[in-house]
Amino acid sequence: MSFSATFSNNFSPTLNYYTCCDLKCLPITVSSIEVKRRNSSRMSNLQQQTSSVPRLLFQRKQRFVICKVNEKEDEPDNNNEKEKEHLEDGNVSSSSSTDSAMQNNGQLDSQPVIGDQTNEQPEEIGWLEVTDSTDSSSQEIQQDDNLEVASGSPLPGLKQQGEPISIPKETIDILKDQVFGFDTFFVTSQEPYESGVLFKGNLRGKAAKSFEKITRRLKDKFEDQYKLFLLINPEDDKPVAVVVPKRTLQPEATAVPEWFAAGSFGLVTIFTLLLRNVPALQSNLLSAFDNFELLKEGIPGALVTALILGVHELGHILVARNSGIKLGVPYFIPSWQIGSFGAITRIVNIVPNREDLLKLAAAGPLAGFSLGLVLLLLGFILPPSDGIGVVVDASVFHESFLAGGIAKLLLGDALKEGTPLSLNPLVIWAWAGLLINAINSIPAGEVDGGRISFALWGRKASSRLTGAAIALLGLSSLFNDVAFYWVVLIFFLQRGPIAPLSEEITDPDSKYVALGITVLLLGLLVCLPYPFPFTTETEALMNL
Predict the structure, then answer these.
(1) Burial of 43 (0-12, 13-18, 19+ CB in 10 A)
(2) Labelling 6: which of 113, 257, 322, 449 has CA 20 to 30 A away?
């Protein structure tokens, strides 16, 4: 395959042109031939001596390398031209197979010889080296402790602890030459990134397999000193690899012990759950301190709502334990409108990939929705234990599309506009649990819905959904106080960004995608109003 006219000037005009990206270069050594610039006759003799095996002579700034060239391997490569242009930026790593049939007038070993125009001793290297003296200085990582990270960082939300740790240039060379490679991630350039290095290049094969190979090589070379991230660069939507010292990624210690803060929030949440289920105390919250006996009336409702919240958190814990994800202590957020806004749970370690994040984020709402729906159905089916239950107006079911649809389906003609209904209080308690799960399923920030949208569609799409969701919640807060407090909570505590995953390129499996979309739809159905009037078929026909 011939080079283009613009690229061919970098090579000697006396030999056939081949792309080093398309061909497989093996290490060889010429022990009896010192490569220097000769006249055209000497170059012709050298070509004739090596005609039995195709060879490529690279000439760059009076420097020469001879390497053996094999046939092109069949592998998908859509970025060969780009790799040719960046070939001089790094060393080319290839497989170490040998050729026992190599013969010519001189005895050929297995090491390349690099020579220049001076009489200095040629330098021997283990693999093919192609350098550009004009660009070499720009490729070195500048060790600057005060280096600032550019905007559009591919690692938003990554909290690095302690003093910055500079990665030595020798380590960077090992990363480029021996950890990354043609079979995983072809490095075309690098730049400093906080305490680590960001490598740009071309990803080979499937991201998950390449990440596994690179991680294994990184551990073999440096044990547990460094952490690899395989991400999408938000500037150009192309894969990048980031290597960061692990010592800078330790969990941040909190000023107040986590269990103490979580316990304090939990006690207040228990109080608001009891208060929410005692209507007599709703108008005057301070009167609850003088009427503790009345709070006992709210115990059944508080237990049902707390049960749904507990099942929600249990779903997170079980999936996290199965996926090797460490969670912090859950902080239950009190609310005097609905009892609680749910819990904020920190992810302590780094999540491996988007599929694991999706399973973790969806497990809680799925468990909570499942139990809440069962209890809601039982509330509609079972009669009140005291024969009266709670009396509500039928219009209350317009506040939720899901609750209104189920009420219309199960109550039928008994559900009429302006008609009071006697219901089992289990309906109201279960509905509150469903609402708490629903607001946590809104695709915004670091709540469950935000993590689900991140796992489904990636970082850029989830950040846009977060902005749209916060805007809509802001508009809803003009008419609903629950929306007001929830948008304030998200904006100041849960806005994100979500901490980087180890590998963010691979999409989740389709079955987990379906679960994630189901959670988002259920949350939407609970929060959206029921728009249709509650009338009988006869009344509907009469209105027509």
Answers:
(1) middle
(2) 113
DSSP state of 11: B
- CA-to-CA distance for 167 and 484, rounded, in angstroms? 47
pLDDT for 163: 57
Paired with 421 in beta bridges are 392
Q: Give the position of tokens 């000439």.
A: 59
As averages over each run of 10 residues, the pLDDT of the chain (544 residues) reads 38 35 40 39 45 38 39 43 44 39 39 39 37 39 36 51 71 92 92 86 92 94 92 90 86 71 91 83 66 80 94 96 92 89 91 96 96 96 82 91 94 86 92 94 93 95 91 87 85 84 95 96 94 72 56
Q: What is the pLDDT of residue 267?
A: 93
Beta carbons of 506 and 352 less than 8 angstroms apart? no
- Residue 250 CB-half CA count within 13 A: 10
Cis status, amide bond into 164, omega within 30 of 0: no
Q: Are 364 and 313 a contacting pair, CB within 8 Å? A: yes
Write out the H or E segment, with its range, that includes residue 244.
Answer: strand 239-245
Measured CA distances, 317 to 311, 324, 360, 471, 501 (Å): 10, 10, 8, 31, 19
DSSP, residue by residue, 350-392: ---BHHHHHHHHHHHHHHHHHHHHHHHHHHHHSPPTTS--EEE
Residue 277 is predicted with a pLDDT of: 84
What backbone torsions phi and psi does residue 514 show, to the nearest 5 degrees?
A: -65, -40
- Continuous H helices in 112-257: 136-139, 169-174, 207-222
CA 417 vs. chain centroid, Å, equals 47
Q: Please give the order of strands across the beta sheet that includes 226-232.
A: 185-193, 196-203, 239-245, 226-232
Q: Name the phi and psi angles at 374, rounded to 5.
A: -60, -45
Nearest to 36 by CA among 62, 18, 55, 13: 62
pTM: 0.69
Q: Which helix (H) or strand (E) holds 333?
A: strand 331-335
d(CA 313, CA 360): 10
**What one-letter code names the amino acid at 504?**
E
For residue 159, how many other CB atoms are within 10 A of its CB? 10
Q: How far apart are CA 137 and CA 247, in angstroms?
A: 29
For residue 534, the model assigns a pLDDT of 86
Phi-psi region of 257 (alpha: psi -120 to 50; beta: other; left: phi over 0): beta
Token pair in block for residue 407: 């009420």
Beta bridge mates, 190: 199
Q: At what angle do helices 481-493 and 459-476 cross, to 10 degrees?
A: 140
Walk me through the domains of the chain, giving residue ranges and CATH numbers: 169-248 (3.30.1360), 258-539 (no CATH)
* 87 neighbors 8 (Cβ within 8 angstroms): no
